[in-house]
Amino acid sequence: xxxxxxDAGKRIDELVQETFKNGKLQDYLDTxxxxxxxxxxxxxxxxxxxxxxxxxxxxxxWEKYGKTINENAEPLKKIECVRNEGKKDFVLIDVYDISQxxxxxxxxxxxxxxxxxxxxxxxxxxxxKYKIKFENKERIDExxxxxxxxxxxxxxxxxxASDFVDNVRLIVEPTIYTIQKHFKLEPSxxxxxxxxxxxxxxxxxxxxxxxxxxxxxxxxxxLKEFESEEKKYLINLEYQSxxxxxxx
Length: 248
Description:
α1 (5-21) crosses α3 and α6 (140-151) crosses α7. The protein has a 3-stranded antiparallel β-sheet with strand order 1-3-2. It has helices at residues 5-21, 25-34, 40-49, 59-64, 112-130, 140-151, 161-182, 190-200, 205-247; strands at residues 56-57, 76-84, 87-97. By secondary structure, the protein is mainly alpha-helical. The chain is globular.
């Protein structure tokens, strides 16, 4: 039972270690794929309380959507940042997962060709922005990989060449996996996640925690950019449809 912030902080530290030492990285990423905007600490904390957690809100948040909390549902604890007299403060709040409400959630399903088109446009956007050109790839995971590399500067990830390679792997491969899971695609790099867990056993907690934090940040940034490109795609699709109707 989490009674205060200190307990929550200690629990997160334990969960960071468990995520790598016990090979639970894939489980964590599966949850992050469902909740990409949630901080890595809250993602670990919420999953430890409910393995199937996917979307959380306080009771009043669900009520705004006309949803009610199921009878006997136990609240989950989440760390929340609040402002107190202009200063940031952190508190533990009660939240409920969508599965604890009377909501009938419907997952968004992407058409594969549409998904590839948007991701390719996103890759081109960053290729043009940073003037970096990659060889064109047909596979979505390669397109995601290239976009992530052009979106981020990994030059400060390690003190030497071997640290750099390992730290980039620690971040990039799990990020690609998470984005693929978010889009309901079959991840192509699960074996790489196992190797990352083996490598990470000897790393200190701060390095591992920073890795999880960086993964969450990149996933969130990537999906925001994707949503922007998706809106353009849908607007263009609607415009083309209207032109077709007018021409017929």
